[in-house]
Amino acid sequence: MSFQPKANRIGLWLFIVSETFLFGAFLSARWYSTGTLKPEHLNQALALGLSIVLLISSVSAFLAETSIRYNHRRNFVIFTSFTIAMGLIFLGGVTIELKEAIISYPPETPYGSSYFMLIGLHAFHVVTGLIALATVLVLGIKGHYGSKDYWAVEGVVKYWHFVDLAWVIIYPTLYLF
Predict the structure, then answer these.
(1) Mean pLDDT, residues 94-116
(2) Cα 101 off chain centre by
(3) Whole-angstrom Cα distance, residue 82 to residue 84?
(4) Which of 69, 132, 139, 150 makes the best surface tag, with the fewest CB within 10 Å?
(5) What is the pLDDT of residues 123-155, one digit of tens each?
(6) In terms of residue numbers, what domain contains 152?
(7) What is the pLDDT of residues 111-125, one digit of tens each?
(8) CB-based burial of residue 104 (10 Å sphere; 0-12 exposed, 13-18 middle, 19+ buried)?
(9) Confidence category of residue 6, pLDDT binned at 50, 70, 90
């Protein structure tokens, strides 16, 4: 293994740690500004469904990475495409939820500002992840990755897992407590 992939991995983990601090700051601000306010008018069923969609996308992302690691290009394309589709479904659901939530929790209220900032921050990261997934999908279709050169896929999938993990923490913070 050459130095470059090792340096890339260190860089990726440093980036993920810095992103963790960013999300942590906004989660802390939510708890500080609103305490244990339990939201009453949020669409719990939709949020739970979106959580399931993201968790399924995490599994398909893992399967995409595993597929390219073993040179199963067809499966890589299928699983990466499925992951992208799940991410788009998630964003569509978040759009519906935002339209509903703005009525009950205006952005100028403490809970509303925390809610919209966290949802917006996470949605931005989902969009970033989808762009990265689409990029590795196109390059994968063109044959850029194989069993010995799949670092970009590995990095994108790790980022996607981080985005999913962030939602696993955001979901109960905003919708359950």
Answers:
(1) 88
(2) 21
(3) 5
(4) 139
(5) 999 999 999 999 999 999 999 998 888 999 999
(6) 3-176
(7) 888 889 999 999 999
(8) middle
(9) confident
Lookup: tokens for 26:
């906004």
Gap between the Cα atoms of 137 and 73, Å rounded: 10
Which tokens hold the place of 25? 């700051």
146 phi and psi angles, rounded to 5 deg: -160, -170
Asked if residues 132 and 15 have their Cβ atoms less than 8 Å apart, the reply is no
Q: How many domains does the chain have?
A: 1
What integer pLDDT is reported at residue 4 of this predicted model? 63
Q: In angstroms, what CA-CA distances link 124 with 15, 38, 118, 129, 150?
A: 16, 25, 10, 9, 25
**What would the 3-class secondary structure string for the chain be?**
CCHHHHHHHHHHHHHHHHHHHHHHHHHHHHHHHHCCCCCCCCCHHHHHHHHHHHHHHHHHHHHHHHHHHCCCHHHHHHHHHHHHHHHHHHHHHHHHHHHHHHHHCCCCCHHHHHHHHHHHHHHHHHHHHHHHHHHHHHHHHCCCCECCECHHHHHHHHHHHHHHHHHHHHHHHHHHC
Please report, rounded to a whole number, the percentage of residues in the chain having pLDDT higher than 70. Answer: 96
116: burial class by Cβ within 10 Å (0-12, 13-18, 19+)? middle
CATH number at residue 167: 1.20.120.80
